[in-house]
Design the sequence.
């Protein structure tokens, strides 16, 4: 128990320092580095860092938040719809070469994202999608890991329940929506959280395909507070604190389903 508490404190300490630093004036930010109360509690409190970040004419931070929220929400919804249908097909339907197709899908998990970065960029260029939301949304709609995780859940749904629904006259889509999906709510929420978080923290891909500052994502927006002239760490900490709030709220309300989905996912089968 004591070990777990110590690990938890070590994990939380950087976050607490970040939040405390966002309320410090720049002159005080690195003044207290030894282990004392002022390491985490500012001597002089100020909210000007947040004001400078939110009302920055050069870097429209609220616009970055809206762009990221829009893209992450759309991608999450599409991932849940598309990957749940693919996982259901692999788990419950019978068709030729199903095993081979699933093995090919799983082999894609070992390919690093950096390998497909240039081909994806060239594809976006040929389609004329650079500097648009389509370049951020479409390549992220498919998640091989999501298909694998949902397949493990769907495989646990008794076939007898599906047969009973079929005898009662339910079509295959109706059976999928009414019986299979409700049984996999924890897995769907877990996949949704992971997808949303991945897109919320996305940096490299938006940096490559988006040039219009008004369409940029939040992590790239935070990096604009650092330049060759130096880094305004007060603004960086304030911006990171603001960007962390939505994720913390999501985990606060959905943590029960997230933990349940993690513990029940890939270990089955």
Sequence:
């Amino acid at each position: 128990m004591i070990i777990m508490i110590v690990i938890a404190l070590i994990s939380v300490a950087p976050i607490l320092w970040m939040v405390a630093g966002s309320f410090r004036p720049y002159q005080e930010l690195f003044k207290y580095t030894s282990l004392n109360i002022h390491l985490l509690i500012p001597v002089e409190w100020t909210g000007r860092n947040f004001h400078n970040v939110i009302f920055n004419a050069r870097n429209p931070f609220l616009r970055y938040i809206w762009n990221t929220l829009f893209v992450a929400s759309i991608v999450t919804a599409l991932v849940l719809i598309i990957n749940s249908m693919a996982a259901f097909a692999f788990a419950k339907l019978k068709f030729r070469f199903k095993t081979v197709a699933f093995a090919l899908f799983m082999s894609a998990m070992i390919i690093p994202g950096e390998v497909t970065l240039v081909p994806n960029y060239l594809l976006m260029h040929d389609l004329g999608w650079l500097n648009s939301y389509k370049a951020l949304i479409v390549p992220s709609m498919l998640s091989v890991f999501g298909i694998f995780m949902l397949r493990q859940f769907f495989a646990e749904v008794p076939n007898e329940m599906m047969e009973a629904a079929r005898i009662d006259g339910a079509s295959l889509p109706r059976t999928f929506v009414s019986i299979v999906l409700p049984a996999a709510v924890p897995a769907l929420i877990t996949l949704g959280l992971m997808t949303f978080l991945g897109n919320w923290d996305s940096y490299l891909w938006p940096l490559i395909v988006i040039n219009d500052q008004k369409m940029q994502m939040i992590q790239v927006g935070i990096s604009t507070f650092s330049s060759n002239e130096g880094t305004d760490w007060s603004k960086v900490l304030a911006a990171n604190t603001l960007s962390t709030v939505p994720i913390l709220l999501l985990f606060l309300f959905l943590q029960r389903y997230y933990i349940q989905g993690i513990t029940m996912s890939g270990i089955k089968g």
Q: What stands out?
A: Residues 66 and 217 are 9 Å apart (CA to CA). The beta strands are 226-227, 230-231. The chain has a mean pLDDT of 86.
